[in-house]
Amino acid sequence: MTDAFLAALGGVTEPYTLLLMAIATFAGIIAAAIPGFTITMAIVLTLPLTFSMPPMQGIAVMLSVYVGGLSGGLFSAALLGIPGTPSAVATTFDAFPMARSGQPGRALSLGLFASFIGSLISIAVLIVAAPPLALLAVKLGPWEYFALIVFALTIIASLVGDSVLRGLIAGLVGIAIATLGPDPIMSRERFTFGFELLTAGIPFLVVLIGMYAMSQLLSELEPSPARQEGASESLIGGDMRPHLLEVMKSTLLKPVNVIRSSLLGVFIGAVPGAGSSISNLVAYDQAKRASKHPESFGKGEPEGVVASESGNSSTVGGSLIPLISLGIPGSPADAVLMAAIMVHGISVGPRLILDHPDLVYSMFIAMAVASVFMLVIGVVMMRAFMRILNVPKYIVVPVVLACCAIGTYTLNNRLSDLYLLAAIGSIGYLLKKLEYPLAPLVLGVVLGPIAETNLRRAFQTSADWTLFFTRPISALLLALAVVSVVYSVYSYVRQRRLMAQRAAEADQKGPFQDSASQE
Amino acid sequence: MERKNPDAALLPTLQLASYAVFAVGALLMASKAGSLPASRWEPMSAGTFPQLVFFSIAVLSGAAFVFEIIKRGIPRTSFKTAWQRFAGLQRVWINLALFVAYMAAMPKAGFIVSTFCYLFAAQLYLAPKRPLTVVVALGVALLFSFGPYYLFADVFSIYLPRARW
Predict the structure, then answer these.
(1) CA distance B49 to B26
(2) Most buried of A118, A348, A421, B94, CB within 10 angstroms?
(3) Reported confidence tier of residue A351, pLDDT bands at 50, 70, 90
(4) Is residue A456 less than 8 Å (CB to CB) from chain B?
């Protein structure tokens, strides 16, 4: 154990690795700071650069982009009032008013320091939670694993998007895409329709790049005059000094907010599908409820910035818990991390921590180091980031699309993957326009083969299908899957009733009262 | 109520169409999965799992279609509305067309030439029409076509596609 830890420490703290991690953290912050460029895109585009690196170095670089990216959204949120990523939505509520009132430096420092504390707390929880969970997961049979994936997919489908049905359909379409090509047990060719293009199946990273990056980038070209044109003109001036010591003191003297928000972030991050885009809003809401002066929230309240930023940054540790201990990625970004490990011939699952403890320890250490880099780079280069936010969309969109093509080609050095990318990207954009959530679809492609392998193994072991319902853990997970769907349908119906009730009340008040209240 | 407006009814109409496409497509794929040969070595054949998945998609899409109709009725939109909305996304479609052409051209034209042409054309189309933006677009196209090619070749020993003519 100690040997593995020391090996990991030595690997991560090599000067060249540290240099690469610093660059990666910087790149992650920049990527997330540019509106329209998401963390997942940044991680996907980093993947090909890590192919030639040793596994430990490659993963450390990817995690640095992840950690940097989770705090990068803060810059555009505070300086432009636009969340650079969905995980910084709540940050705009208070960081932007604070920056507009002449304290942009303080708003950014508060967010960066809260992100730093959030990351550290999440790493601590990850170190404590992942190893025992992995030891438990090793004992799970194919029945439990299949049930676990069903549960994970129903949770993802229920949490993302407006419609549970569309979420479930998207998840199943993802699994269906994964059935194209050779089957995972006997390698029998399926659904290729004579196209050589499909004989090897559709690589999930091509689906991920097409569905996530391409559809998002194309959406950025849609007309929205107020957002696009106003963005680059509304950059904020004022006191850009970081006031870091003062910020550290004020945050640490009132630790409850940052600890509560971080723990919420870790918990939400550990639930498949519920990532930083949810945790920042929940943490902000809880901070507002717990505050003695909730009326100041939304007007530049420091506690709001701290809650949102520690809430989103702490999801990174939480989301790695199911990945390291069960081999199940909870978000598309985690799926790319999983791919980065698998590219080096290391299988991801509960045995990861037993067979490659040095790699797992290096992930913990790399996250901690990246958090330090994030804080230092963020504070030192605050002014430079203001300039970067001005990069116009007409440069960002085509350049990142070209980077997507590079990423796709370098995965397998196959030109046919480029055709797949164009097709999948176009379909992804259409699905996005039709309001199908894309996260369940992408995770369906990753989890589908695992689900099929375990289902078929279960039947190879015993033809008795009732075992899925009689083995306690499997039965519990399947019951939880049903409960998650039923609960989300129930909350949807309740929400619609409330909306109808409010509409009826507004009608009863009459048009005169309405116009009066608007005035 | 919102369905009375053809503009508001466009998205529900397209969603209904998507449910129908998914349901029919999934049924066809499920029947195709059923024709995959059974295995001697395991009780489940290679087609059983896909069949399960495709049947589930068909059932859920069918259910979504029926629920939507029962709950909100048949949405009424018009081709004119659909065309207007489609035309409003002109920047997206043209950029998508440029990207598809870029992907199609890369195997023949190679990475450098195809990337340069795509980046230059896409930026010229999207950017405000000013002399400075032409210079910026040219610089960015040169940097991101030659740069990644030599970065990947010299640093990572990964060779991006070369021209074949």
Answers:
(1) 13
(2) A118
(3) confident
(4) yes
Mean pLDDT of A401-411: 87
Subunit contact A397:B106, Cβ cutoff 8 A: no
Hey, are the CB atoms on B158 and A48 less than 8 Å from each other?
yes
In 3D space, the residue among B99, B91, B112, B104 whose CA is nearest the CA of residue A213 turns out to be B99
Q: Where are the beta strands (DSSP E) in A287-426?
A: none
In a domain, A62, yes or no: yes
Structure-token match 């909350």, residue found: A491
Domain count along chain A: 1
- Report ipTM for this prediction: 0.92
CB-based contact A221 B26, cutoff 8 Å: no
More confident residue, B39 or A144: A144
At A502 the pLDDT is 79
Instruction: Give A160's DSSP letter.
Output: S
| Neighbouring residues of B138: CB distance < 8 A, sequence distance ≥ 6 | B120
At residue A273, the pLDDT reads 62
pLDDT per position as a tens digit, B98-138? 999 999 999 999 999 999 999 999 999 998 888 889 999 99
Q: What phi-psi label fits residue A5: left (phi over 0), alpha (psi between -120 and 50 degrees) or beta?
A: alpha
Q: How many residues does chain B have?
A: 165
Is 60 exceeded by the pLDDT of residue A225?
no
Residues of A in contact with B123 (CB under 8 A): 394-395, 398
Task: Tell me what pLDDT residue A236 has.
Answer: 61
Cα–Cα nearest to A261, from A313, A334, A331: A313
Which of A173, A410, A421 shows the shortest C-beta gap to B158? A410
Using DSSP's 3-state secondary structure scheme, residue A297 falls into: coil
* Rounded distance between C-alpha atoms, residue A481 and residue A158, angstroms: 10
Task: Tell me if chain B has a CB within 8 Å of the CB of A223.
Answer: yes
- For A52, nearest residue in chain B (alpha carbons): B156
* A488's tokens: 């989300």
A518 inside domain: no
CA distance B28 to chain A (A): 11
- Beta-carbon separation of A395 and B54 below 8 A: no
Q: Residue A510 has what pLDDT? A: 54
The DSSP bridge partners found for residue A189 are A182
Q: Chain B within 8 Å of A190 (Cβ-Cβ)? A: yes
Within-domain flag for A314? yes
Work out the average pLDDT over A461-478: 90
Task: Determine which of A189, A197, A406, A426 to mutate to test the interface with B (most B C-beta atoms within 10 Å).
Answer: A406
Domain-wise residue ranges, chain B? 2-84, 90-154
d(CA B18, CA A445): 20
How many other CB atoms are found less than 10 A from the CB of residue A481?
Answer: 21
Give CA torsion, residues B100, B106, B107, B108, to 10 deg. Answer: 110
